[in-house]
Specification:
Structural class: alpha/beta
CATH superfamily: Aldolase class I
CATH topology: TIM Barrel
Radius of gyration: 18 Å
Order of helices and strands: EHEHEHEHEHHEHEEHHEEH
Bound molecules: iron/sulfur cluster
CATH class: Alpha Beta
CATH architecture: Alpha-Beta Barrel
Number of helices: 10
Strand order of the largest sheet: 1-9-7-6-5-4-3-2
Shape: globular
């Protein structure tokens, strides 16, 4: 398995950290285009709880992230400007171009990563991404979550999996590195279905994968169902059993950027084991020590 750490060291010759950035964007699942309440698991922060305030300039947000990490990372660390919250290509192309150019001109930034939905990549946005990718290594992170259209409809994703397939191809055709996000533990999905989602993303041509456990957060539709006892979260053992199966089906040239993520602690209803980061890291190191 190639981890992000190993991949970044090979590609950039050093350790890389992400500086999370918020733009003044929303998402079609929130602004009324496809819906107003967002995906059933998504918090009001649009999955960007760890980003700096969006009122700050891109440069300031990167400066603040670098400052926060100053004593925690080795000298010479490179940064990936990570446009994380909401749907970062769901905006005017000129706004996106300015933001990406500002990030790519920052002296500490060696790469840029843009999180978005595959149905928000019209031609004029693709032109912006193609232009930026000529200047700096560019990653586009697509929130697939599942390849099963019925499960996806259950949380209100708002696009079919075939849209994702076309987006991966279009991005790769212009030389952009694609990372696909997949959630394990969505209601209605069995472990076999979760593994099929991983295989689907690999077959579609993704360059990298990020796995995460379903976080059930306060104030979300899933939060309400959880409080009513209608859905449950995976326990740690169950989750990593699925991760292990996923690793087994991922070819060695596809980078696994993340085995699990961090839910926002102040909103987290379940699974609570995810909030004990040290325990999770120890568990991963023990269980996957021969593969990391
Ligand atoms: S998960 Fe992404 S697409 Fe879904 S509501 Fe949140 S920001 Fe929008």
């Amino acid at each position: 398995m190639i981890t992000a750490d190993r991949y970044y060291k090979e590609r950039f010759g050093r350790k890389m950290y992400k500086a999370a950035i918020s733009l003044d964007v929303t998402c079609p699942n929130r602004d009324g285009t496809l819906g107003t309440s967002g995906c059933a698991f998504c918090s009001a922060g649009g999955s960007g709880e760890f980003s700096a305030p969006r009122e700050l300039t891109v440069t300031r947000q990167i400066d603040e992230a670098v400052e926060r990490l100053r004593n925690k990372v080795p000298a010479g660390t490179g940064y990936i400007a990570y446009f994380q919250s909401f749907t970062n290509t769901y905006c005017d192309p000129s706004y996106l171009r300015r933001a990406l150019e500002e990030a790519s001109s920052h002296p500490k930034v060696a790469a840029v990563s843009v999180a978005t939905r595959p149905d928000c990549l019209p031609d004029d946005i693709m032109d912006v991404l193609a232009g930026i990718s000529q200047k700096i290594p560019l990653f586009v992170e697509l929130g697939l979550q599942t390849a099963d259209d019925e499960v996806a409809a259950g949380f209100g994703r708002g696009y079919k999996t075939e849209v994702y397939d076309r987006a991966v191809k279009a991005l790769k055709d212009i030389g952009i590195n694609v990372i696909t996000h997949i959630i394990f533990g969505l209601p209605g999905e069995t472990p076999d279905m979760m593994i099929r989602s991983v295989e689907h993303a690999v077959n579609a041509g993704t360059d990298g994968l990020k796995f995460t456990c379903l976080y059930i957060l306060k104030g979300t539709a899933y939060g309400k169902l959880f409080e009513e006892g209608k859905i449950a979260a995976l326990d740690m053992e169950e989750y990593f059993d699925i991760v292990e199966r996923a690793i087994d089906v991922v070819p060695s040239d596809v980078v696994i950027h993340r085995l699990t993520g961090d839910g926002p602690k102040n909103l987290l209803l379940a699974p609570l084991w995810t909030s004990d980061k040290r325990q999770v890291i120890n568990y991963i190191n023990r269980r996957f020590k021969d593969r990391l």
